[in-house]
Model the fold of this input.
Amino acid sequence: MFVGVAGSAAAQQTDSLRRAFSERFDIGTALAARQLVPPDRATLNLVAEQFSVVTPENVMKWSLIHPTPDRYDFVAADALVEFAADNGLKVVGHTLVWHSQCPRWVFQDERGDPISRDALIERMRDHIHTVVGRYRGRVQGWDVVNEAILDDGAWRDTPWRRLIGDDYLDLAFRFAHEADPDTELYYNDFSMTKPGKRRAATGLVERFRRAGVPIHGVGLQGHWGLDYPSEQEIDDALADYSKLGVHVMITELDIDVLPRPDEEQGADVGRGARRTDALDPYRDGLPESVQQTLADRYAACFRLFNRHADAITRVTFWGVDDGQTWHNNWPVPGRTAHSLIFDRQLRPKPAYQAILDTATEPR
Done:
């Protein structure tokens, strides 16, 4: 087991997020390969103390777990599942079908030409049955399809959709259910507060339920900033999703304090920009005033989550500490990001206490 290392950051905590919110919703975090193999014991002790659910940040994505047609790599994914089992944590698998971090061979034949609909369906079925089947009974839920909808509500033009058709989503959920009938199945996306995407996502869930396609929840990726989306937008979205009768989850929560290179919001991994001093202002640490602004923003978000706790089943941070957050390299590579609630030395930031304080406030 990974717990019980004397002097760990977790041992210095007088409370924990998992205990504080245990009557409202699960609190989760994402783990990276470098934290699992070999085990980063300080980080894993902190996770075991503070969180009730773990999600693989990358190690279950297709490009890492199934990099070539005849090879699966389960080393890091197995380590995550074992760590969770040893410490009484739930696991949410991420992600089975996504247009990004999916090798080109998945969509091509030996000549590099696009494969047929039937061939791609068979590859999807084999991958999902293999991965979900391996962890049957040990993974409590899966992000089955990730980011299939554009912000305006249109379907994203991905190789999955071009080669199979719109029913690729239905098939993915059905295959996952075949592989593990007892696991929960989720649709996951960013910008889920935007009206167009909100209408499309709620419509997808409603269509699935009418057609008997198994779906148990929707994940709202909380890749947000200090001033977007507005509290009203978050509140309205949570109210809408709560009416669906499925689990509502905040799946990838982080709050970007760095300036954006453009006005676009969201989390499209295809975007990028060159680093400049103006875009990387906090290399020597986050000023106290910005720390407080970050703490206030996290607290405001959690007050909204608490308000909708009857529908929300999980809030997952997208990483443990600032050194892990993907904002260090997106949308500007090489920046010093401060998006999470533990700093690079695994010390709690003011945002940590601000979040804890909301757990004792009336809903």
Q: What stands out?
A: The chain has twelve helices and nine strands. The radius of gyration is 20 Å. The mean pLDDT is 93. The CA atoms of residues 61 and 95 lie 5 Å apart.
